[in-house]
Amino acid sequence: MKKGHDIAVVGYAETKIMLRGGRSAYDLAAEVMDAILARTGLEKKDIDGLAIGETMSETSNPFWGVYMCEMLGLTPSWMQVNGLGGASGIGGIARAASAIRDGLCETVLVILSDAQSSSKPTEQGAYRHEFTYPTGLRGPVGAFGLLSQRYDHQYGLDHKALAKLAVTQRRHALMNPNACDKLRVPLTEEDYLKSKFVSEPLRILDSVMVCDGANGVLVMSTEKAKKLGLKKMAHPVGYGEITNFGGDDPLTDITVSGFSVAGPKALKQAGMAPKDVRMIQPYDDFLIALMIVFEDIGFCPKGKAAQFIHETDLTWKGKLPLNTSGGQISAGQAGLAGGGTNLVEAVRQLFGEAGERQVPDPRNAMVTGIGVIPYGRNWNVSNVMILEAA
Amino acid sequence: MSAEPKKIPRPLPRPGVYMPTQPFWDKAKEGKLVIQFCRDTGRPQHFPRPVSVFTGRRNLEWREVSGRGTVYSFTNTFSAWPGHEDRVPYLCALVELEEGVRMLCNLLNVKAEDVKIGMKVKLCWEKLPDGTNYPAFEPA
C-alpha cells in the first residue's frame, strides 16, 4: 500500500462557531466526540488514542489533556497535547498516524476545542514584557501589519486581489450554517477596500474575529476501517512541517514562510505538483497569509500571488476552490481550534458531504496550518497536509 | 478581535524575568544600546537569548552598537495594544541595525506618511513613566 494510504480519516465533526458563546472547551469537545461516534457507529471504548491542541481558554491547566480524557470518559493508551497553535490539527493527524503505525494505539480522536472569546486573555510571557509590550505592537495584527508593509515594498500589495479573497471566502461562509452568524452577511469588494486600518496597511477585514468552537476527526489504519465496514475515508498522503522557521537568522526575509519548506515536502511525499491539487483549505488568520501560501508552496512564483488570484476561479465550483466553508476569516476563528475548521471542511468535501458548496470531483485537498507569531519575523510554525479521497 | 480590554497603564519592561537581561537595561540607563553577540561567529542577535541561536552555545557577550540603522518595515497602529490607547496612532517598526540585526521598536519624531522602508534612522531614547530609558528610533 502506498505510504499514507495505510492511514484513514474516517469521521469528522464540528460545532457551530460562536462569538462569546459561553461554553467551555470541554463542553464543545464533547459535542464533537458525540457527533463522531454517532456518524461512524463506533463506540467510545473503541477510541484508544487522543490528540488534542493547546488552547487559549484552558492553557493555565498543565494537565488539560488528562482532564479532557476524564471529562470524555476516555482511557487512551496514547495521548498527546499539541502546542503548534493553528498547526495542531493536521499536526495531530500526522502524529496520530505515527502512533498507529508504531502500535501505540489503533483509533485516535484528534480534537481541537477552544473558548477564547469567552475567556480572559492569556499571557505568553518570555521576552514579551521587555521587548514587545512596551512598543505597543498589536499582537498578530501588528506583526501582519509589518509583514504586509514589507511585502508591499518588495512586490507591491494588490488590494483588489486581497478583496477577491475576502469576497470569495465570504460567499462560501454564506453557504456554511456552522459559520459564525455575525459574519454570515454578504461582503463586496468595496466593503473590503473601505474597511478601516487596524495596523496600516492591514485592514480589519484582513483579519479573523476570535470566537469559540471545536472540531475533530477520527483516525485509524485503513485496514481497520475496512474491517469495520467504514466506507468514507480520506488518506493523508503527504505531510510537511517546520517550527521556528528562520529562527537562527536575524536578517531573514519576513515575506518568506516555512511553507517554502513544508509545502514542497508534502507535495513530494504525495507524488504531486501544485497543479494536481484539487482544492485548498489553507489556514487563514490574515488574507495576506493566503498569498504567501500560494507563493511558497509553488502555485505561483514569489511576489506573483495577486496575478494568480486574479486569474484563478477560487470559488467552490472553480479551478482551485479555496476555503469552501468560508475559512476562519469569514466563518470565525474558534480560538486555537481554528486550525481544524479548514481541516474538517476538507474531509467533508472529500466525503462528498458539503451540500450546496460541494466541490465537483473532490479527489484530494490540501490543508495548511500556521502557528504562533514570533519576534520580528514571519510566523513560527507552518505545516501542510494533502488528503486523498478513498 | 476579542472583548475590549480594560484600561491599563502602558506596559513597562520587567528586566531579568526570562533570562539575565540586566546589562541591557543598565547600559540603556547610560544612553548606550547593547546587543548580544555570539563570540564564536561574531554575529549579533536580538531579543536576548540564553544561548547563541547560531551555535547553541552560551559563548555570548554584550557589545555596544552604533545605533544607526534603516527601516526594514513599519506599521501605523490604529488599534492599540492594551495600555497604549492614548498613543494612537503610533508607529511600530523593525529597524535593521548596521551591525546586522533587527529590533522591534517605535519610530518617533516622524509622521507616518514620511516613513519609507530603507530610510536611515538613529537611536533615540524614550523615557517611560518609571524612568526607564527605552530604545526607539528617529530619522537620521
What are the key terms here?
heterodimer, A: 390 residues, alpha/beta, 5-stranded mixed beta sheet, 4-stranded mixed beta sheet, globular, B: 140 residues, mainly beta, 5-stranded antiparallel beta sheet, 3-stranded antiparallel beta sheet
Walkthrough of the structure:
The complex is a heterodimer of chains A (390) and B (140). Chain A is 35% helix and 18% strand. By secondary structure, chain A is an alpha/beta fold. The model of chain A has no long low-confidence stretch (mean pLDDT 97). With 140 residues, chain B is mainly β. Chain B is built from 1 helix and 8 strands. In chain B, the strands form 2 sheets. Chain B has a 5-stranded antiparallel beta sheet with strand order 6-5-4-7-8. A 3-stranded antiparallel beta sheet of chain B has the order 2-1-3. Chain B is globular, with a radius of gyration of 16 Å. The termini of chain B are far apart. The model of chain B has no long low-confidence stretch (mean pLDDT 95). The interface between A and B is large, with 45 and 52 residues. Strand 5 of chain A pairs antiparallel with strand 4 of chain B.
